[in-house]
Amino acid sequence: MSTDPAAELPFFYGSISRSEAEQHLKLAGMADGLFLLRQCLRSLGGYVLSLVWNLEFYHYPIEKQLSDTYCIAGSIPHCGPAELCEFYSKDPDGLACALKKPCLRSSDTPIRPSVFDSLKENMLREYVKQTWNLEGEAMEQAIISQAPQLEKLIATTAHEKMSWYHGKIPRRESERLLYCGAQPDGKFLIRDREEPGTFALSVMYGRSIYHYQILQDKLGKYSMPEGSKFDTIWQLVEYLKIKPDGMVTILADACVNRAAGMIPSLPATRRTGPNSYTPPPRVVTVKEVTPVPADDALPMDCIGFNPYHNPNDIKKFNIQRNQLFIDEVELGSGNFGCVKKGVLAADKRQLDVAIKVLKSDNEKLMKEEMMREAEIMHQLNNPFIVRMLGLCNAESLMLVMEMAASGPLNKFLSSNKDTVLVEEIVNLMHQVSMGMKYLEEKNFVHRDLAARNVLLVNRKFAKISDFGLSKALGAENEYYKQGSNHDPSVPKPKSL
Fold this sequence. Notes:
Blueprint: H1 18-27, E1 34-39, E2 47-53, E3 56-64, E4 70-72, H2 81-90, E5 101-102, H3 117-132, H4 136-155, H5 171-179, E6 188-192, E7 199-205, E8 208-216, E9 222-223, H6 233-240, E10 324-333, E11 337-346, E12 349-358, H7 363-378, E13 388-393, E14 397-402, H8 409-415, H9 422-441, E15 444-445, E16 454-458, E17 461-464, E18 471-472
Parallel strand pairs: 1-5
Antiparallel strand pairs: 1-2, 2-3, 3-4, 6-7, 7-8, 8-9, 10-11, 11-12, 12-14, 13-14, 15-18, 16-17
Helix pairs in contact: 3-4
């Protein structure tokens, strides 16, 4: 049984991602006006129209209205997705161009169901049976006549049937479960928080566990603070499997709830309509901290905490010169040369980067030092450490690193001493400590940790930088001694 009005359209692909839609359009020739339709991951019953014009991709969300009509924002409503596509084939009405040629599914490309699609038929029957005490033909007739309304109602609690949902368990229990068995990056679970309508997403990365709050706004939309909004929890989870949306990593393996399989509850307070009332959730500001026991409270429990950078971004040791675009803007300078802003072209994306450029004076010695720094940084992969993306050996030797646009911590504290909050400083200190913990676990000694060598992505996220004095501990357990910068007044440590 399918109630999706787009199911009969030969250019409807179901629950595919944006990148998959673009791949289908590429394979079909990239002609102007080529288009397809796919499910929208953010709104229930909605779609996305993916269109090609001038070798560019355009993606237009189609929302399902309360009147069961469909429309692109700012345009007129239509009674169904087929009628909407027919309209835009005659009049672009704000689109990049009119729809000219459908990108048809091949015979071996079935419509991809969403996670909810694979569950909803059994859930509908169980709900009708338990709520209305119907069976057999009466049940089927009730489902047929009420399917759209019932699907929307059940979708809001479908997460309770998912293997990653663990209900109301304590924070410490979620960490115990994640540490059980294999511990791959992206292993995750969802749990209820004390405040009604809010959840916590717990995810593992680098054998550390990060907790993110999921809030519900007055319209019933779910999101992480400053993140994208979704109609349901399971839609948010599916999206985070594709994009990290500010998290430390994308979601991967579910931490399975062995007790899962219960029929989702459908409390009346979750229903919406003119005769129902849902109390609005309490407005939470980013300065508040998750209510956890005092001995369990950590800076990462703050709502605003989102470790920066996706660790799955491109990282190559050798970068070609034609991939780099260097700006004349200088971010800093030193004995080795200077650091400039730049852009790295990689995998059809452009990343803002910082480029450490070697100057020609005493080039051989400086090159050895920069190569040593590159060898160290290339081995490190942690959200709280500036990552090296690669080396480029062209007119000068260049060390390409990820950008931390807000500059060094010491300058930030100096220029914001009247406005910076204690909570922000504690958060940054904790992140630096997490980065140093990672270095210790990797048997690295930094040797020059100072506020000037902590760079800020923004006022919430810090990264340790400058590994010119660092060394991996060898058999003799000595620090690395860089002769040109060694202070003779400081005794040379022989061992740890």
